[in-house]
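2024-03-11 09:14:02 INFO worker-7 job=invfold-0412 stage=load source=structure_tokens
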């Protein structure tokens, strides 16, 4: 029986140097939705499932996790996915080009929006329950489609336009996956503080300007402190599937 790559193809063509923790590796065609497919596979395949889209114009991938914390405490895995992408981009792209975050999950390069991180959780899972699985994903514009109109949306850009000319979407996907596992290992071994520091180092300084900033490890909320006034911006479900 010949299996469709969208169904359960573990061939990792185009991805390189991935640790054995990633299994199965499921490539999708250009029109695929990596996060949606990972959600479908999560109950059956479990942690380590990596779904990615073969595309020249975009980077899109999702990984299934099996957290040991409650959903509220595990949801900052979204921030880990953001930090991991920044590390991958820093290793493969021009170091002088700034990469920043908008709260909670928007990625900017040189001021222009290039993509976002996403998260999906089991339907109906309570905040104080340990989820059976969690899926985190990344979606980033690598290059503009050939039929696009340059300058049509000045608020958006692509990695290629910003100087990422010596890499490919597949290379960046593999790098993101590796950095994600390393970031999650740091979280487990060194505590949540390491995730918060890496994320906050790239958070747009205009967000909460003039306020001390931190991230609540119990919920992932962004905490702003101005004198005696304290404000928490939740890691909202709007970024979830």
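2024-03-11 09:14:09 INFO worker-7 stage=emit residues=241
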């Amino acid at each position: 029986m010949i299996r469709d790559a969208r169904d359960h193809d573990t061939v990792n063509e185009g991805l390189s140097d991935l640790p054995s923790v990633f299994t199965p590796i499921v490539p999708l065609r250009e029109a695929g939705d990596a996060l949606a497919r990972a959600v479908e596979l999560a109950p059956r395949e479990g942690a380590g499932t990596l779904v990615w889209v073969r595309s020249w114009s975009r980077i899109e991938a999702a990984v299934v996790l099996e957290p040991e914390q409650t959903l509220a405490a595990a949801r900052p895995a979204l921030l880990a996915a953001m930090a991991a992408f920044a590390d991958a981009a820093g290793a493969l792209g021009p170091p002088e080009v700034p990469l920043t975050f908008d709260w909670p999950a928007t990625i900017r390069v040189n001021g222009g929006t290039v993509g976002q991180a996403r998260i999906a959780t089991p339907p109906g899972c309570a905040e104080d329950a340990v989820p059976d699985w969690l899926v985190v994903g990344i979606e980033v514009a690598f290059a503009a489609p050939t039929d696009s109109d340059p300058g049509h949306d000045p608020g958006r850009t692509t990695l290629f336009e910003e100087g990422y000319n010596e890499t490919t979407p597949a290379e960046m996907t593999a790098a993101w996956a590796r950095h994600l596992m390393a970031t999650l290992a740091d979280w487990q071994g060194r505590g949540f503080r390491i995730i918060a520091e890496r994320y906050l180092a790239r958070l747009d300084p205009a967000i909460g300007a003039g306020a001390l900033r931190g991230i609540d490890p119990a919920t992932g909320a962004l905490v702003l402190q101005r004198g005696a006034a304290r404000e928490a911006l939740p890691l909202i479900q709007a970024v979830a599937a």
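2024-03-11 09:14:09 INFO worker-7 stage=report msg="The longest helix spans residues 169-190."
2024-03-11 09:14:10 INFO worker-7 job finished
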